[in-house]
């Protein structure tokens, strides 16, 4: 047989990431609650920045200077320690390819974000999974997985899809237990939603430790998922190394313009926080009152657990809700086949979900 090109070891073990569904056939109105997008949309100022963007024929500023300055001003950071990416997904991949090679190990928790596994395998590394306790990352379990081959540890805080939060003293304990050559990635995609917010302390750890980076995104509270924009902050030597791996024009001009406008629109973000806080609490209460278990969440989404009885499972609920145009996220790929993840939506969507779940459980 003629030899054909073979992907590197690890590549064919990757289960390609499957995004949340966005369609349901034969339904008049769809409520997409499957990808943790904001029901408020982006800041009108960000939309205007894209509309008025000129000179698409010119390459963008490859070092994203103005955007980094805007982020730095907002969070009191040094712009030289910030790197922007085409979504934080790109940065997670770039960080991994910078530090993980064949046979190196990368640790993440049981129900951790799927991109970590993909990034580790894509670089020939070995994904190492640490058990969680009550759907929350367990620092001792993570530390117990460290070996001389460990190169990277990922912690999403809050985690997706569980919505659980690890208080900062626990994050610090994780960091203190890691060898200093291991990169600790704090994935803070949902940071702006967290009310019990000790991200200041997280940023302080990033500022003072030599092996900690934080990734952030414009996809969630800023409502700019479609234009792919994220950033990371870390020690200069990590930023310098990751910057060498990055494509020269990985962030486009309209995205940077929108990001700058969005990060300066404090009122829009504040509205989104208020909306989320109100409806997160309401949905948790109402869904629990229906007799379903809900994992307490600090993000803009909820993990709802369904019974195992035939006709009442998460899969059945997904089919039932989809018929009503309510699209939630199956989370089987996260080892959570008994649950669905619900993004906090508009008032209309949230009320429809509760009504539909009530009918589903009644067997209507
Ligand atoms: C925990 C977590 N990290 C990172 C991302 C990636 O976001 P983006 O690439 O849109 O910045 C997501 C998106 O769902 C996420 O849930």
From TrEMBL:
Originating organism: Microvirga brassicacearum
Listed name of the protein: Histidinol-phosphate aminotransferase
Pfam families associated with the record: Aminotran_1_2 (PF00155)
Keyword terms: Amino-acid biosynthesis, Aminotransferase, Histidine biosynthesis, Pyridoxal phosphate, Transferase
Residue ranges constituting the Aminotransferase class I/classII large domain according to the UniProt record: 30-357
EC number, as in UniProt: 2.6.1.9
Cofactor: pyridoxal 5'-phosphate
Keyword Amino-acid biosynthesis: yes
Recorded GO MF terms: histidinol-phosphate transaminase activity; pyridoxal phosphate binding
Protein family per UniProt: Belongs to the class-II pyridoxal-phosphate-dependent aminotransferase family. Histidinol-phosphate aminotransferase subfamily.
């Amino acid at each position: 047989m003629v030899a054909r090109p073979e992907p590197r070891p690890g590549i064919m073990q990757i289960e390609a990431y499957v995004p949340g569904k966005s369609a349901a056939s034969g339904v008049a109105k769809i409520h997409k609650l499957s990808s943790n997008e904001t029901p408020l949309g982006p800041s009108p100022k960000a939309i205007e920045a894209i509309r008025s963007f000129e000179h698409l024929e010119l390459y963008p500023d490859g070092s994203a200077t103005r955007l980094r300055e805007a982020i730095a001003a907002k969070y009191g950071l040094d712009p030289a320690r910030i790197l922007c990416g085409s979504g934080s997904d790109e940065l997670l991949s770039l960080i991994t390819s910078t530090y993980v090679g064949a046979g190196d190990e990368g640790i993440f928790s049981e129900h951790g974000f799927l991109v970590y596994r993909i990034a580790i395998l894509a670089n020939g590394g070995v994904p190492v999974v640490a058990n969680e306790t009550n759907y929350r990352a367990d620092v001792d379990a993570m530390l117990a997985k460290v070996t001389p081959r460990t190169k990277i540890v990922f912690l999403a805080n809050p985690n997706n899809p569980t919505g659980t939060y690890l208080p900062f003293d626990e994050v610090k304990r994780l960091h203190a237990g890691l060898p200093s050559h291991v990169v600790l990635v704090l994935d803070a995609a949902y940071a702006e939603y967290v009310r019990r917010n000790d991200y200041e302390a997280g940023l302080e750890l990033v500022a003072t430790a030599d092996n900690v980076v934080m990734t952030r995104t414009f996809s969630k509270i800023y409502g700019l998922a479609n234009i792919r924009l994220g950033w990371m902050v870390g020690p200069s030597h990590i930023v310098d190394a990751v910057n060498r791996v990055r494509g020269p024009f990985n962030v486009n001009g309209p995205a940077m313009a929108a990001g700058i406008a969005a990060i300066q629109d404090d009122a829009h973000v504040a509205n989104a926080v208020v909306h989320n806080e109100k409806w997160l609490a309401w949905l948790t209460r109402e869904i629990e009152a229906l007799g379903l278990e809900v994992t307490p969440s600090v993000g803009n989404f909820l993990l709802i657990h369904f019974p195992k009885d035939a006709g009442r499972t998460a899969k059945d609920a997904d089919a039932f809700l989809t018929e009503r145009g309510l699209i939630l996220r199956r989370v089987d790929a996260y080892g959570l086949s008994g649950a669905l993840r619900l993004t906090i939506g508009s008032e209309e969507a949230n009320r429809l979900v509760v009504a539909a779940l009530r009918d589903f459980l009644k067997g209507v």
